[in-house]
Design goal:
Length: 86
């Protein structure tokens, strides 16, 4: 809803993030149907995606580690506005 309110044509990437480990993409998947309990030491991505023009989409990924107190950013936070190029 937030993406579409700001000009996105939709969000069909299927999830908002996933686990990171020995493989590029691991469980859990950050979806409404994944009930995995996050535990300290787990590394996750936050990767909102959007379709911004017919046939064109983008996914931006930031990485976090789950801690006893919540989460810690591993990647540098992106600027609030991202430049989209063709």
């Amino acid at each position: 809803k937030v993406l579409e309110a700001n000009g996105a044509l939709g969000n069909d990437v299927g999830r908002l993030g996933h686990g990171l480990g020995m493989e590029l993409t691991e469980r859990p998947s950050n979806t409404a149907t994944d009930n995995t309990v996050l535990k300290p030491g787990m590394v996750m991505t936050l990767e909102p995606g959007m379709v911004y023009a017919p046939g064109k989409s983008m996914v931006h990924e930031e990485n976090i580690v789950i801690t006893e107190d919540g989460a810690e950013w591993l990647s540098e936070r992106a600027e609030p506005e991202l430049i989209i190029t063709d």
